[in-house]
Amino acid sequence: MRNNRHGLVQHLQSWAKLHHVDADAILVVGVSGGLDSMVLAETCLRAGFNLHVAHINYGLRGGESDGDATAVKSWCEAAGIPFFAHQAKIEKAPDGIQAEARKIRYAFFESLRIQLAETTGLNAYVVTAHHANDQAETVMLQLMRSSNPLSLSGMRPHDAKRHLLRPFLTITKSQLAAYARDWDVSFREDSSNAKHDYLRNRIRHEALPQMESMREGTNEHLARWAERFQPIATYLQSEIEQARSRCWESLEDRGVLHLDAWVDEPLHMEVLFGLAQDHKIGARAVREVSALTERLVESGAAFQTAHVRIVRKKRTLHWTVLP
Question: How far apart are CA 69 and CA 65, in angstroms?
Answer without folding.
Answer: 7
